[in-house]
Amino acid sequence: MVTLKWSLVFDKMTSLLQGCAVTMEISVLTLIFGTILGVVLALMRDSHIKVVSRLAQMYIWIWRGTPLMVQAFLIYFGLPNLGITFSAMTAGVLSMSLNTGAYIAEIVRSGIHAIDPGQREAAKALGMPWHLEMLRIVAPQATKICILPLVNQFIATIKNTSILSAITLTELTREGTLIAYNSFHYFEPYIAVAVLYLILTTIFTQIAGVLERRMA
Question: Which pLDDT tens digit goes with each residue over 81-96?
């Protein structure tokens, strides 16, 4: 008869919660850096300068078209062969940010393109400089349009951090794996990890719902 040892989970709850904290730290940093990169890429992608637009298009194509795990392996394990070494945390945030930036670029572009072109044409007709047009007309409306997709991207980012356990980054999934390896009990730790991820994503799903109702 199989005996489940749930006390193992409760005894190691501190470690799991520390893993949650690392997961959230990675997710928040990824959202910040990924958003900055995504906005830059979106503006480059819509640039009238073909070389700039093509570079952004190429970047988005590569980072969206290759697996995040491969990207993390390349940065953490591959770059040291070129004399470039990062800690697991830095490599994790870097790979997640570079990957997420490509997706956020498309979110931002969609938000910009959803704005009535007539408004931008009117701004140009009035002689408004490009930076003022973006700040006063485009940015406020695009932000409102993009906020929900960005929250959804943040939720996806939280789940994607589990991939970083493969580069020895001790986030939530790796904490669960270490508990499993040391105890030879796999079911209980991974159930606990899944529940904690579910709690985190549910919280932000509810936040997304509140934002959606307020902006409706």
Answer: 999 999 999 999 999 9
